[in-house]
Amino acid sequence: MTKFIKNNDIKSHWYEIDAKNAVVGRLATVISKIIRGKNKTTYTPHMDNGDFVVVKNIEQIKFTGKKFENKKYYKHTGYPGGIKEITPSKLHHKKPGEVLKLAVKRMLPGGPLAKKQLTKLKIYSGSNHPHLSQNPTKIELSKLNNKNIIRN
Questions:
Q1: Residue 45: alpha-carbon gap to chain centroid
Q2: How confident is the model at residue 53, as a pLDDT?
Q3: Does the model's pTM come out above 0.90?
Q4: How many CB atoms lie within 10 A of CB 32?
């Protein structure tokens, strides 16, 4: 029989990622795996077994190619003819962390569990964040794969 983890056995860790020159999609895949708990041996699909992720320097995130200007995000207001579109450059200018948050959100399964897991993502502009007391473990994206970082 498959053993599932109990609520009492769940221990959450904190991770810190520097998003300086990081590619959005590659960063989002790393984050979504950690938030869901797929990096643990105790992964259980129907439970929130994931860890917390703090992303800093979000204002320096990058897209590959011309996606920063040409890609479009759509949303609907609920009214007839109410479809709105926005490019990542405009969205990044209005809300710097929203581009990454949308990418991670779309990599999580839909439903209440995904909303709960998305609250474990903490995004900050600049290199300072209020979660230093949790002693987050640093994850270096360039060491995971050299394509994760755009070098100028």
A1: 18
A2: 97
A3: yes
A4: 22
